[in-house]
UniProtKB/TrEMBL annotation:
Residues 222-363 form the Glycosyl transferase family domain. One of its GO terms (biological process) is carbohydrate derivative biosynthetic process. InterPro entries: Glyco_trans_1, Glyco_trans_4-like_N, Glycosyltransferase_grp1. It comes from Lysinibacter cavernae. The lineage of its organism: Bacteria, Bacillati, Actinomycetota, Actinomycetes, Micrococcales. This is D-inositol 3-phosphate glycosyltransferase.
Length: 401
């Protein structure tokens, strides 16, 4: 158990559909791990008969109110709060903090949920948690955020950054202590949250994926395609991957597909050109779901150089597509990469080591390559989305996960 003050309402009957309010500071149409997790969890809960209400920023400043939206194939109620674009970031929108409590009061009074599950403690989640506490509503909190990740967009002087991180974690601790259960995607991420917040008993619950959605091609590859999918931001360290591409043998004819958008898009394209990679690196931007699935199936190896992953849904998607994975030995990525089995870990920020590990995959014998593919498919099974949904259902009812 955590050392938070738990909500005092009693456990809901195991067979009773629940009314759930889920607070998300980022949600569709945003494209990131936290948003994708919330969308898939909400859709899965709807499919199991629960009444799910999402609270999220408006898509535009004027598009506010309560709507029925189809998310991941499921119709659910979405309460869109007025939000403003944060222009240092390429897509982030935020709700004015001083409006959150009043807006939360209106939602909770109208919906009267059995449980509030906040996916972020920053604005919407904080407002809902404070107001749910007053109403004795059970609260579950999930952390997807490292305070350090926000620094690139905080536009504050360098000398203030240590203060910003300390203050952010202090605020996070206060909000998470309102919850009866606190979760985060991996044990490493749980340890990280406990260390910085002072919480205890944080529960690791995988974000989960539906592996049946992905297609693995177990035939030998005719070309050597490296794949990265994700936001083009500083902490992803895609520049390290570009430098690694210059170190691969020319006769390997390796290419790199980069799928996703972000504030570093221009800088990375400029770097790719300076490194002479115009004919080997392709930037595809954001693509449709069908196109994304094709990229996963057709690739030869997955590369994730990020140093700030609390889990990495994209890496799990690559594994479900039967790809050997090469990832930085940082944060939670070692939970997914079993070094030497389904791929390799490399020293963070080390382009030489990354190139060496990519070469181990791309230069493997057909038998060795197939073995890595099969290990990825086997390793992703423990991250089945249905297990994740069942765990949260138990937490929502006040039961042991």
């Amino acid at each position: 158990m955590t050392n938070q003050t738990p909500s005092a309402n009693t456990s809901a009957p195991a067979d009773k559909p629940l009314c759930i309010v889920m607070g998300c500071d980022t949600f569709y149409p945003d494209i990131n791990g936290a948003a994708r997790f919330a969308e898939r969890l909400a859709a899965g809960l709807v499919a199991r008969g629960h009444d799910v209400h999402i609270v999220a920023p408006s898509k535009t400043h004027r598009k506010t109110g309560t709507f029925t939206e189809n998310i991941e194939g499921a119709d659910m109620t979405v309460h869109r709060w007025a939000s403003w674009r944060w222009y240092p970031h390429d897509w982030l929108r935020f709700v004015l903090p001083w409006t959150a409590k009043a807006r939360a009061r209106k939602v909770l009074d109208a919906v009267k949920p059995d449980v509030v599950h906040f996916q972020s403690h920053i604005v919407i989640g904080r407002g809902l948690a404070l107001e749910a506490t007053k109403r004795n509503i059970r609260i579950v909190g999930t952390n997807h955020v490292m305070a350090e990740n926000i620094l690139d967009f905080a536009t504050i002087p360098e000398s203030w950054k240590d203060w910003f991180v300390r203050t952010s974690w202090k605020t996070a601790s206060k909000v998470f202590r309102t919850a009866s259960s606190v979760t985060t995607p991996t044990r490493k991420a749980a340890d990280f949250l406990e260390y910085h917040s002072g919480l205890r008993g944080v529960i690791p619950v995988s974000c989960g994926i539906d592996a049946t959605h992905y297609t693995a091609d177990l035939e030998p590859r005719a070309s050597n395609k490296v794949l990265f999918v994700g936001r083009l931001t500083t902490e992803k360290q895609i520049d390290v991957l570009l430098h690694a591409m210059t170190k691969l043998p020319a006769d390997l004819n390796a290419s790199l597909d980069i799928v996703g958008g972000g504030d570093q898009d221009h800088n990375l394209k400029t770097l790719s050109h300076k490194l002479g990679l115009d004919d080997r690196v392709r930037f595809h931007g954001r693509v449709s779901e069908d196109e994304l699935l094709t990229f996963y199936t057709d690739a030869s190896v997955w590369a994730m150089p990020s140093i700030a992953e609390l889990q990495s849904i994209a890496t799990m998607e690559a594994m479900a597509s039967g790809l050997p994975v090469v990832c930085a030995n940082a944060m939670a990525l070692p939970h997914l990469v079993h070094d030497g089995e389904n791929g390799y870990l490399f020293e963070p920020s080390d382009a030489d080591d990354l190139a060496e590990k990519l070469l181990l995959v791309l230069g493997a014998t057909p038998e060795r390559y197939l073995a890595m593919q099969q290990e990825s498919l086997e390793g992703v099974k423990v991250h089945d989305i249905n297990r994740t949904i069942e765990t949260f259902e138990r937490l929502y009812r006040g039961q042991t996960p």
